[in-house]
Structure formats: structure tokens, C-alpha cells
Amino acid sequence: MKTIRSKMMLLSILIWIIMALIWLSMSAFNQKTVEQYNQILQRYLLMNQASQQSQQTLTSLNNYRITPTEANLKQYVNDNNMLFHTKSELSWLRNPNNEMQLDNFQNMIESQSEAMDLVVRFQKDNDEDSVAKKFDEASNITKYISETTLTLISGEQKTYDAFYRKIIKRSNDLFRMGFWTLALVSLLLLLFSFRFVNSVTQPILKLTQASRELSRGNFHKPIEISNNDDMAFLARTLDNMRLNIGNLFDEIQSKAQLEYDLHKHKLMLKESELKSLQSQINPHFLFNTLNMLSKEAFLAGADKTSELISSVAGMLRYNLRRMDSRVSLRDEVEVLEEYLTIQKARFDDRMTVIREIDEEALDIEVPILILQPLAENVFIYAIEPSEHGGTLTLRVKQEEDHVIVQVEDTGQGMSLEQIEKLLSEAESSTYKGHSTGIGIRNVLHRLQLFYGVEDIISIESKIGEGTCITLTLPRGKQQ
Fold this sequence. Notes:
By secondary structure, the protein is α+β, with helices and mostly antiparallel strands. It contains twelve helices and seven strands. It is found in: Cell membrane. It comes from Paenibacillus albus.
């Protein structure tokens, strides 16, 4: 079965093959032409280079005659060596049309070089007459070299005149071939596209008519398409739907009744859940009850019990606030003191708290519940697992544009993997039934949203030495 996708793929492949063949043929022709043209250009450049180097060497020799220094002599030797190197490369230009002229050209270069070497030798011997004579000879040879260069280049132009004409003819042939190829490809694509579009649109029209009949409630007229592609499969599927649609009506009615019963059951279940919630203790009622118990314990002389109950009540009242509430850092420190009072009753002398708090830094606004989860982390990882307990240090200090809050412990420390786990999305500080259930990652996320700053928390830890969590709270950047 030919699918519409296979037809489109066939069309795309056909276009790609034709374009690839055209591109390859044009690239091959162009590459060959460029290589031949570069070869001819190199021949011209090499001939011209020999003439220029001949003149340059003569100029260097003249400079040495005028000022016979080691530097000028060295320059002449270098130029002469380059001239000899170019002479050896001229053999590459040899062909049947310029063989004799090229030999003469190379001999003149040798003669010029010999004459110039004699000039140098006579110059060293202070033989001015011989110097002048050989220098004039070298100058005349340089002129002959220049004239021979023009003759060679002219001969090259005559030799490759046919090649230039051939290139022009190839370009014209390529233009005609491209035009007729484009016309042929356009015709083939037009024919193929017409057949392709017709094979798609005709079945679509039949399917549209059949769908219109089905929308009117006429399920007795069969749907037939003679194609052997996706449209035929779609037509058979639609025809099967037409045959089964009557049974589907009954199934739909049955499912509707079932959904109605299920919805009714859900309403009853929610009503039951509501009644169950109504029977639970109201948190505010629990807070008032704790306050009453705290007063009763104080009147009965149980000061420590009263203090603990009062701390629990204060934490409960504080935790009943919305998680998007804004509080001062002073409020956070005060509720942390309530939490530390409770933990002090648990750990007694196993726990030591050091406070280094700058009172001027406590007026900054912060999100609610950011310090207590950090302190909980200290008790979970540092104090509780240790037989001898540990020390919790709370530091709050004011800097120029920031307030620095540090919670440090003397526990066993954490590895990098443990720190990453602590800050991960899935991390939650709910352990052993004594936590707010707010993870450090939650604290970080709320601080970032509150201040609009990403780099706000850092954790430094060394195995066996302890951990320090630092919050850098910017002033005046609350969102």
C-alpha cells in the first residue's frame, strides 16, 4: 500500500537526486575550469616573478656598489639565491612552443648572475673599471630578460587562446544545459504534483461528502474509495464507524448513567470527608487550650512545664500564618528562641547555643519560617546523632547592602553529595516527627522568589568539623 507519506518521500527524493546531479556536474566542470585557469595564471606569475627578481637583484647589487656594507651584500646574496630558485622552477613552464625561448631565458638568468658575482668580486678588489663594465653587462642582460618575459607571456597567450575560447563555449553550453534541465525538471515535477494532488484531493472530497451524510443521520450509505493508500484506510475506518455507531449510542447511554452514579458517589464521599474534618480539633482551639494549660501549670508552680507549653503555643500561633506572609527577621529570631527552648528541654546539657546577633540588622523583612528549618537541620544531622550533643551558633550581622545570617554547628559535617541532596527538590526536613516539614530547598526557593536573587544561600562543611549555612539577604530588594 502506497501511503501519502511514501509519495511525498518519493517526490522529495526525486527532487534531491536531480538537484544533486546538477550540482555535481556543475561543480565538476567549474572545478576543472578553475584548475586549468589557475595553472595558466601561475605560469604568467612565475614568468613575471623571474623578471622582477632579476631587476631586484640588480638593484641590490647597485646598493652594494654605492654602499659596500655587509648588510647590502647579504641582501644581494639573498636576492640572487631567490633568482636562482625561480630559474629552477621555470622548467615547469616548458612546452613544445616555448622550449627554445625558455632555454634562452634561463641562460640569460645564469649569465646575469655570473656577471653580478664578478661585480662583487671586483668591488672587493677595488677594481672600479671592471666593476662598471660587469655592472653594465648585468644591466643589459636584465633588460633582455624583461623583453624575453614579455615575449614568453605573449607566446603563452597565443598557446592558450584556444583554451579561453573553449571555456567560453563550455559556459554557453552549460547555460543551455541548465535551462533545458530546469525546464525538464519543472515539467516532471508539474506532472508528478498534479497526479499526487489529484490522488489526495479526490478521496478527501468523497470523505467530506460521506461525513456530511453521517452528520445528517444517514448511516446506510456505504463509503467506498478505490485508492490503495492512507485515504482508503481512512475510508474503511469511517465505514466501520458508520456500521458500529448504532451500538455506540447504547454504550454511551450506559456509560452516562454509570458516570452519573459515580459522580453521586463522589459527592457522598466528599460530604463524609467534610464531616470527618469537622470532627477534628480546630488548630486555634488547640492554641487557646495550650495557653490555658500554660497558665494552669504556672499557677501550679510548674514553671518549666509552663514555659514549654508557652513555647509550643507560640510556635503553633506563628506556624498558623500563611506561607506567603512577610515577617521581620526579629520575629524569626524570636520564634527560633521558642523552638530552642523546646529542644533545650529535650537535650539539656548536650546542647549549647551561641548567639551573635546585631540588633540593627533585625528590622529587615523576610519570608516566614526560614530560620527554624535551618536549626532543625542542625539538630537532625549534628546534635541528635552525637552522644555528646553539640553546639549551635546563630550569627546575624549587618554589612553595607546585605544582612548575613549564619547557622553553624559542630557536628560530623557533610560531603558534597549530602549537601546536594539537602538542596535537592525532593529533600524535605521532615524527620522523626519533630519538624515543620519545610525543607531547606523550600527555604531557598522562597528566598529567591522573595528577593529576586539566585545566589542567596551557601553551605560550607568539612567532615568531622561541622557545617555552616549562610544566608545573604539583600536590603531593599523584596519583590
